[in-house]
Write a structure and sequence with these properties.
six-stranded antiparallel beta sheet; single chain; Phosphorylase Kinase, domain 1; three-stranded antiparallel beta sheet; Transferase(Phosphotransferase), domain 1
């Protein structure tokens, strides 16, 4: 019987065992239908139950069948397994025994835990599960997961694992022994969540999370144990090992009992049960069910009591167990002092969090363990939790509860502000004798307003989901400052504040690489207003370095927006103007230095886009060097540390474009190390920074051959980015992050030949980008994303031989690329991309048998590439494109039929020879200058062979 049919048989048996004797036959007739083999198997199990008792599945077969007890196995205590001496038995699990052992081969001294198949069991499936656990543990390296140290097999062939010896107690016992409070228990539990999420990101589901599998050391370090029934999510890893009885019913999910697919939601459920027990001291279900069927029914059908009720009333079925009621009082005393206080502590958010994690339907639970952990963190910080879809009153109560001082201060400031405005209006009507007093009041109100509004904006700018609030704050500030400016006239300080407001508003509206609303046109209008104010102010105060910095930043932001909207040439001019401003400062202040590094990174991107890859890399390195100087003088400057990290990530992209993948990976890791040191809780920007660095690392790993490692990183990033995008739906950058995740996942799946999933994910990426383009037209970035998505999907469809569909998407990409080149003819990179797309379309035309159309497309693309190479003859990648096009044109002429007139055949042969020779000349020159990458190392030999074959054919 297959594992799937055995699973079905056991589920039917569990249901039937709970029925009255008279109902069993009709139930099985309906459930098994015409499957007589299945019916006989279930009836056999029921017969064994009648003879062996309710727990016969847990007892050895010899004992159940009446052949007496199983002989006691020989204990391995005192014996030697490999280099390890077995000292004592530590515990017995579902499939094996765990012993304390010491290493005795003289290499080094260490105490370890040795796990092997339980003595007396000759079961190949169980042995295979232990080997499976060894494979899983070897891929896990996390401080909160017990480490695998060694592995092997005994002389008798029994496999064993050697793990670090965790000296600790189960997490529930640890919490009770130490009398931890609710907050302390939640913080400890979140560390367990980190370990489980780590395993999930490596495509591993634990499937048996329970307190006894979470040991806590004396110093408070939790360790997740026993991956014996864990399952790999990676389909390429081979069949997963499945043994139904290897689960703990009290912590198993409904889908584990039903035989439904096991996903990461299974571990979310078990974690919910563990948290229930940690906070209430009870199980959410009856701890002593009368029959297996009763346990299954409880888990699959009964709704558990709210934790806040369980601590005072007992969990379902626990009233029959007075020991539970006696045990609740010490738990309450340890956590909150009294049962009443504990119940109040659990009411509301914690009730909702735990019950959401334990929902019967996996789709209704938290999507990831990280989401569960994040909700607990939000509760601890007094923030609204996602499990409670609260009203505005709930949200307001949470905000006031955690920000009492800020709310009180804001109220005072608001009252003061209104009073100040009223006073200003009143003073304006007073006689001129009181004019000076009115002027002072005007200034006081202005400074108070700008300080409150902009400081408040800075305090919320990195909070998740704050984009709409930021827009409202800045718009209101701008309206107020505009009204003041009408009265102030040429007041320079006020106009400077106005410029700062415009720059900040542009940042919220459409900063291309930061959290924004994606409104590029609105952002351009705002930033142009800022520049128009700052330029005359700087001319009037040439020695003011703060003005230098502010104008340089405005130029840089202008260039970023122009680049994003497709005005590439104008963007380069503004970058250069910004660099000229900071270069004119003889002794730059810290503020000017910081702006200089930002400009060098942006300018490096522009240079790379123009084809000057070496210039781009040099500009990134300048930024890194300036940041290093700043950090030597100001080691605690977080902004400069982040700027340096950003520069490292851009340098990685530059190296990647130059196909210097090891250098790119090293640079990306340097950036991530800096970002890791800056991470702050509940700060969306610092968390996204780490994600960006991981994205860069995944890209390089994939290009260096570790496709699966890269795919695991990308899938973890997608989970996190989807959560951010859902929580802040107006955040344009968050939505683009999701597109990039789907795009990269699809690319890696295609490389791994997982074509069905790859095409589905690429279509998701395109749908997101099409919606973005429809909502905010005019973005060059979105158009470029759309072009890449269409082209990527075309290549996938070509790989599956769906040439008509592939041609359709390639032509859609061509339209976007042609429009971009028409708008920016000086953008050589865009022109080169156009040639590559047209080459791909011609390849598809050939596959469809349209030789004439293919040849025309190749020739158009070659003419375009010749123009681009003539403008930049040193650019290797563009010369590679031209060499490939010459080769393809030669191939079309060479394959023309010899049935044509002799003169035409000769002309075709001569044409093919000419194009092959042009292609070979480029390849050979690149080879001589050692700029021919590994991907094309065989091209010179290949084209030379094509020439010989052509000459041989035409000589005959």
């Amino acid at each position: 019987m297959t594992p799937e049919r055995w699973q079905r048989a056991r589920v039917l048996f569990e249901h039937a065992s709970g029925l009255a004797t008279g109902d069993t036959a009709s139930y099985l007739d309906n459930a098994c239908a015409d499957d007589l083999e299945l019916l006989r198997e279930v009836e056999s199990l029921l017969d064994c139950q009648r003879r062996g008792g309710a727990v016969f599945l847990e007892r050895p077969a010899m004992e159940v069948l009446g052949h007496g007890p199983v002989p006691e196995p020989i204990s391995p205590v005192g014996s030697r397994i490999g280099p390890y001496q077995i000292i004592e038995l530590l515990g017995i699990g579902g499939m094996g025994e765990v012993y304390r052992a010491v290493r005795v081969d003289g290499q080094y001294e260490a105490q370890v835990a040795v796990k092997l198949v339980r003595g007396g069991i000759d079961n190949a499936v169980v042995a295979e599960r232990l080997r499976h656990e060894r494979q899983i543990l070897a891929g896990l390296d996390h401080p909160n997961i017990a480490h695998l140290l060694d592995g092997g097999a005994t002389p008798a062939g029994t496999p064993y694992l050697v793990m670090e010896l965790v000296q600790g107690t189960s997490i529930d016992q640890f919490c009770n022994d130490r009398q931890l409070s609710v907050t302390e228990r939640l913080q400890l539990f979140r560390r367990v969540c980190e370990a489980v999420q780590y395993a999930h990101r490596r495509l591993i589901i634990h499937r048996d999370i329970k307190p006894s599998n979470i040991l806590v050391t004396a110093d408070g370090q939790p360790k997740l144990l026993d991956f014996g029934i864990a399952r790999l999510l990676d389909p390429s890893a081979g069949p997963a090992v499945t043994v139904l009885q290897a689960l703990t019913p009290e912590y198993a999910s409904p889908e584990q009992f039903k035989g439904d697919p096991i996903t990461t939601a299974t571990d979310v459920y078990s974690l919910g049960v563990v948290l229930y027990r940690l906070l209430t001291g009870n199980s959410p279900y009856p701890s002593r069910p009368a029959t297996p069927h009763a346990m299954i029914r409880a888990v699959c059908e009964l709704q558990p009591s709210r934790p806040s009720l369980a601590v005072s009333e007992g969990a379902a079925g626990d009233d029959k167990d007075p020991g539970n009621k006696i045990a609740r009082q010490p738990i309450a005393s340890a956590q909150e002092g009294t049962l009443v206080k504990l119940r109040r502590r659990l009411e509301g958010d914690l009730d909702q969090i735990i019950l959401k994690a334990m929902r019967k339907d996996p789709e209704g639970r938290y999507g990831t363990v990280e989401q569960l952990s994040d909700d607990i963190e939000r509760h601890l910080k007094g923030l609204p939790v996602r499990a409670s879809r609260g009203s505005w009153r709930y949200l307001a109560r949470k905000f006031v509860g955690r920000q009492k001082r800020m709310v009180a201060a804001a109220a005072i400031v608001l009252v003061t502000l209104l009073a100040g405005v009223a006073s200003t209006v009143r003073q304006a009507r007073i006689a001129t004798a009181n004019g000076h007093r009115a002027e002072r009041r005007f200034d006081d109100v202005r400074h108070l307003a700008t300080s409150f509004l902009f400081e408040f904006h800075e305090s919320i700018r990195h909070l998740p989901g704050s984009t709409p609030a930021r827009e409202l704050v800045v718009k209101r500030a701008l309206e107020y400052l505009n009204s003041l400016s009408e009265e102030a006239g040429s007041d320079a300080p006020l106009r400077r504040e106005l410029a700062t407001a415009y720059v900040t508003l542009a940042d919220v509206q459409g900063a291309p690489m930061r959290d924004s609303l994606g409104d590029y046109q609105g952002a351009l209008q705002s930033i142009h207003k800022a520049v128009a104010i700052l330029e005359p102010l700087r001319r009037a105060s040439p020695q003011d370095q703060d003005l230098d910095s502010e104008l340089a930043r405005a130029y840089s932001e202008t260039a970023n927006l122009l680049d994003a909207t497709g005005s590439f040439s104008a963007a380069l001019d503004f970058y250069r103007q910004g660099l000229a401003v900071v270069a004119s400062v003889a002794k730059p202040t810290l503020k000017v230095q910081v702006e200089t590094t930002t400009l060098h990174v942006s300018y490096g991107d522009a240079l790379s886009k123009s084809g000057d890859l070496a210039g781009g890399v040099a500009s990134y390195k300048k930024a890194i060097a300036i940041d290093a100087d700043i950090l030597r003088a100001h080691p605690a400057d977080r902004e400069s540390k982040r700027d340096q990290a950003v520069a490292f990530i851009h340098l990685a992209n530059g190296y990647d474009t130059m196909r210097m993948f090891p250098e790119a990976l090293a640079s990306a890791k340097s950036g991530r190390a800096l970002f890791d040191s800056l991470v702050m809780p509940n700060n969306a920007q610092t968390q996204r920074d780490v994600a960006v660095a991981n994205e860069a690392i995944a890209q390089e790993l994939g290009k260096m051959g570790d496709k699966r490692g890269a795919l695991a990183i990308e899938q973890g990033l997608l989970d996190a980015d989807l959560l951010v995008a859902r929580n802040d739906p107006r955040n344009h950058l968050a939505r683009r992050d999701v597109f990039i995740d789907y795009y990269e996942i699809a690319r890696l799946q295609s490389d791994l030949n997982q074509m069905k999933d790859a095409i589905a994910n690429e279509r998701r990426a395109i749908e997101l980008t099409e919606a973005e383009d429809k909502a905010a037209p005019g973005s060059a970035v979105t158009q470029d994303d759309l072009k890449d998505g269409y082209m990527h999907l075309s290549k996938m469809l070509e790989k599956t031989a769906d040439y008509p569909a592939a041609l359709k998407f390639a032509e859609m990409a061509l339209l976007i690329s042609a429009a971009a080149v028409k708008a920016n003819p000086e953008d050589l990179t865009g022109g080169s991309n156009l040639s590559e797309i047209e080459m791909e379309i011609s390849d598809l035309q050939l596959s469809l048998g349209h030789g004439r159309e293919a040849l025309a497309g190749y020739i158009r693309a070659a003419a375009n590439s010749e123009h681009i190479v003539a403008s930049d003859p040193a650019h290797t990648e563009r010369r590679v494109v031209l060499a490939r096009l010459y080769e393809k044109i030669g191939g079309v002429y060479a394959r023309k039929p010899n049935t044509a007139p002799a003169t035409e055949v000769a002309m075709n042969g001569e044409a093919a020879r000419g194009y092959y020779q042009k292609s070979l000349a480029i390849w050979s020159e690149l080879q001589r200058h050692e700029t021919l990458g590994a991907d094309y190392a065989g091209e010179p030999v290949k084209v030379a062979r094509l020439l010989r074959d052509l000459d041989s054919t035409h000589s005959n």
